[in-house]
Design goal:
The complex is a heterodimer. By secondary structure, chain A is α+β, with helices and mostly antiparallel strands. Chain A is built from seven helices and 13 strands. The longest helix of chain A is centred in the middle third of the chain and has 17 residues. In chain B, a hairpin with a 5-residue loop joins strand 12 and strand 13. In chain B, helix 9 runs parallel beside helix 13 and helix 12 crosses helix 14. Classes of the chains: A alpha+beta, B alpha/beta.
């Protein structure tokens, strides 16, 4: 429970509705407070906003360009529009752009927003460049399918400053050729990766998957509708990380931890994340 | 060569098995000696050195990578490990930085020959760069296609990237430099260019050098900034932000850890003004930066210059050394008791690093990705400290404002665009080169000054790839910020590329789209994907030989609007402007 603190409130106007949010909150927080649903891709509640996907942009009075709601602090008196023609257009184009070069078939939320904004990725020049990367299966814990990567930087942030401080991966290359990569694309076992799987946990498009999930999908036997989720506490050490065991056909198929859990904030170590074969 | 052991592994970083060779370690040593390594000592439980020491060294990553590239010819896995370990940088991050730059290679070229970069951008393409390229290749040279090399006045341009030998620009050899306007008494920014000896502080002083610094010390910081505000000076890089406002904001920030940065990374296709100025009047850049340092109360000065400008780099370094020796830089600038010194950093082939926040990231040793604004550089600039960043043309204007006063400065130009402006003329024009004219000169007058168009005028590209095409009907347009804006054009960085009716404009526009695709940093979706898809649409149009289909025109507009509205930085904001203006003018898409 949060201690009672007096916070300075900032009042801003979202689509004509006045909302008060604590000092330091973002426009996205204000949109949430106003009950306005906002699409996000690169934003994660446990990560520092990098504002690269630009799907959460809103129109801000007095600003020439649209502004990313995830990172822009709310300031007293701001007037924001989240459903203007310009906002709808840019959001549609971002979703369309991503769908032209990336396999977004397993990014459910993204697909729903694409429908919402009427994205039409088929209107582009046929045969355009795509990510065109082979699936990297280098161990039994998780796989990397960069055909599904939207370069949201979330895995890089989770591996680096925002959670793990391992820095096994970075963005390499430039422009459309940019990719998430280890140094010289060495395999994960040869890299600094410690297999905490925190990158897998934050990936919004399933480009990073548990090997168990990947195998089941390959066998056309991945059935989320038949899965149950069991909350438990990790049995390895005394920290007390909450685990969510995803079970299909009486087998654990993956393991997550809740973002809002005080101890983990969604993060685990290799043992909690992957060490359940003994169950 | 046998590998040299790298010492005990860093406790918290993981390095692969690839070891640096002796030569690679020597290249690293040249920038960061072993004694200065990020980690000092290490026991089983402790790493002495720590985070602060690492952060303090990170800004040397790009210089170390430059050193490896120059000595070895590429950044090998062992070389990268050697560099990353010395600096305490995770190798994945160092790789991310190395792969960001065009002048750094991360694949083995299989040779140690120099690499000849041939410019393929519009002015050079018009000057038969393709033929030059073919003949170089036939002669066995290792050739690499390059974006604009900033030598459009002497196209076609070459830059030779040396391995184990200095980089060089063949056109510099024995060049008898002369400004087209040499001897014109009305020149201001260019008045010493081609007159003063750029390698001599004494010569600079004989031509009025350091009078402005003396004057600025007499006036005091507040009056200096007021004079600049009164003059109406605005930035010459394209955004035209008022210089006085920028300096005042930095001056108002507390503490001495503030920065003055000279942005000499001009890479806009068609721009070469700052190269000419830095090569032929380098002390003026140093003096004006010093004025800025004293006025804003900053102690740190930085020059960030294109990696493709070896002569300008050498002359600026020479000027810094002489100024330092004369007590005009250092702990006590010109007897004022104030500290100000300048470090020079070379870019490594990335147009985006001319964007101010990308430039900061590049100096700091990170990928040259622009930051979201706000916060602005005046409060959160280099190393997140207050920073005044200007390009050389803007800075040099300050000298005349101080020696002659703001009123004299305003005696030419217009009310809203006072003073003079540098223009880089290239392409199908009589005398390509750098020109200085008062704001308000018409485009036609400027072209006449440069000998007029060669052949019937088809179009002029104003402001470079990020600018717009205008047609012959724009010859009467006064070249001012306000008139350009009203006409939906821009002066940008002063690019004026001239095309006559023999030029294949579709090829020019496809190349501009390719330029943006290549130079997008890839960080934000609208620009990363938008520049790619825009290029594909134009390639399709060129191949079809048919008029632009309405749905393709709509797609171009849709992509442009998203790039303008939702990109992080100016590259995305302007990546479609030349393309759209070419469509609007009927320069492309009309084939029948």
């Amino acid at each position: 429970m949060s201690p009672a603190v007096t916070e300075t409130a900032v009042t801003i106007r979202v689509d004509g509705q006045e909302v008060a949010v604590p000092d330091g909150a973002t426009i996205l927080d204000a949109c949430d407070a106003a009950g306005v649903d906002t699409p996000t891709i690169c934003y994660g509640p446990t990560l520092t906003p990098v504002n690269v996907c630009r799907v959460c942009v809103v129109e801000l009075d007095g600003s020439r360009a649209l502004v990313p709601s995830c990172s822009r602090p709310a300031e007293e008196g701001m007037v924001v529009y989240t459903d203007s023609e310009r906002v709808r257009h840019s959001r549609k184009m971002v979703l369309e752009f991503l769908a032209t070069g990336v396999d977004v078939s397993q990014a459910d939320e993204l697909g729903q927003w694409a429908d919402h904004y009427g994205a039409d990725p088929d209107r582009y020049v046929p045969g355009g460049e795509t990510m065109d990367e082979p699936v990297r299966v280098q161990d039994n814990l998780y796989i990397r399918d960069y055909d599904k990567c939207v370069l949201c930087y979330r895995c890089v942030e989770a591996c680096g400053d925002d959670a793990q401080h391992t820095y096994a991966i970075s963005v390499a290359g430039r422009g459309f050729g940019a990719r998430i990569s280890t140094e010289f694309d060495v395999t994960l076992p040869d890299s600094a990766c410690v297999y905490c799987g925190n990158c897998v946990a934050v990936c919004p498009t399933n480009a990073l998957q548990f090997k168990t999930e990947f195998d089941l999908r390959e066998a056309d036997d991945w059935r989320p509708e038949d899965q149950t989720v069991t909350q438990t506490v990790c049995s390895y050490c005394g920290v007390g990380c909450n685990l969510e065991l995803h079970v299909q056909d009486n087998q654990i198929v993956k393991c997550t931890s809740p973002d809002d859990h005080d101890v983990t904030q969604g993060n685990l170590c290799i043992k909690g994340r992957f060490g359940w074969n003994y169950v | 060569m046998p590998p040299r052991p790298r010492g005990p592994p860093l406790a918290d970083l993981h390095f692969g098995d690839d070891q640096p060779t002796e030569a690679e370690l020597a290249a690293v040593d040249a920038i960061v000696p072993e004694a200065d390594a990020a980690t000092v000592t290490e026991t089983e439980r402790l790493v002495r050195g720590g985070r602060a020491r690492r952060q303090g060294l990170r800004h040397l990553l790009l210089p170390v990578l430059h050193s490896l590239q120059h000595e070895i010819g590429w950044i090998s896995p062992g070389g990268l490990n050697g560099a990353a370990e010395r600096l305490g940088v995770p190798p994945a991050e160092a790789y991310g930085v190395a792969t960001f730059y065009e002048l750094l290679r991360t694949t083995d070229p299989g040779h140690r020959d120099d690499v000849v970069h041939v410019c393929v951008d519009p002015a050079c393409a018009l000057a038969s760069a393709e033929d030059l390229r073919a003949s170089l290749e036939a002669s066995g040279a290792k050739v690499h296609n390059s974006p604009c090399l900033g030598q459009c006045d002497r196209a076609p341009a070459l830059f030779v990237q040396g391995v184990g030998r200095p980089d060089r620009v063949p056109a510099d050899d024995g060049e008898d430099f002369r400004l087209p306007q040499a001897g014109d008494p009305d020149l201001r920014v260019l008045r010493r260019v081609g007159v003063v000896d750029p390698t001599s502080l004494d010569s600079y002083r004989e031509h009025g050098g350091y009078e402005a610094l003396v004057r600025s010390v007499e006036m005091g910081p507040d009056a200096v900034i007021s004079a600049i505000s009164d003059s109406g000076l605005s930035g010459r890089g394209g955004a035209a932000f008022p210089t006085g406002v920028k300096w005042r904001a930095v001056a108002d920030e507390p503490g001495p850890d503030k920065h003055v940065v000279a942005n000499c990374d001009e890479s806009e296709p068609g721009t070469f003004k700052d190269r000419v100025v830095c090569e032929h009047d380098p002390f003026a850049v140093i003096e004006s930066m010093t004025v800025a340092g004293l006025a804003t109360g900053s102690v740190h000065g930085w020059i960030y210059i294109r990696g493709e400008y070896p002569r300008a780099t050498a002359r600026l370094e020479g000027a810094i050394a002489q100024a330092r020796a004369a007590g005009l830089l250092g702990a006590d600038v010109a007897g004022t008791g104030q500290r100000f010194d300048i470090e020079l950093r070379r870019g490594a082939g990335a147009y985006i690093c001319g964007e101010e926040t990308a430039l900061f990231n590049s100096i700091e040793g990170f990928r040259g990705e622009p930051r979201n604004k706000p916060p602005f550089p005046t409060t959160h600039g280099l190393f997140s400290q207050p920073t005044a960043i200007n390009n050389p043309e803007t800075l040099i204007n300050v000298l005349g404002i101080l020696t002659d006063g703001p009123d004299a400065y305003r005696s030419v130009g217009t009310e809203r665009s006072p003073g003079t402006r540098l223009f880089c003329l290239s392409g199908r024009v009589g005398v390509p080169g750098l020109y200085e004219v008062p704001f308000g000169t018409t485009l036609g007058e400027l072209l006449d000054l440069a000998g007029g168009p060669v052949g019937p005028l088809a179009a002029v590209l104003l402001g470079g790839a990020a600018g717009v095409f205008v047609g012959p009907d724009a010859l009467d347009m006064p070249l001012t910020l306000e008139d350009a804006r009203e006409a939906g054009a821009t002066l940008g960085s002063g690019v004026v590329t001239v095309f006559d009716d023999t030029v294949d404009m579709e090829a020019v526009v496809v190349r501009i789209a390719e330029f943006f695709r290549d130079e997008s940093c890839g960080q934000c979706v609208p620009c990363r994907v938008g520049t790619q898809r825009q290029h594909e649409v134009l390639v399709e149009l060129q191949a079809s030989g048919r008029p632009l289909a309405p749905q393709r025109a709509e797609l171009i507009d849709d992509m442009a609007l998203a790039m303008v509205d939702a990109s992080i930085c100016g590259l995305g904001h302007t990546a479609a402007s030349a393309v759209r203006s070419a469509v609007a003018l009927g320069l492309i898409g009309n084939s029948s």
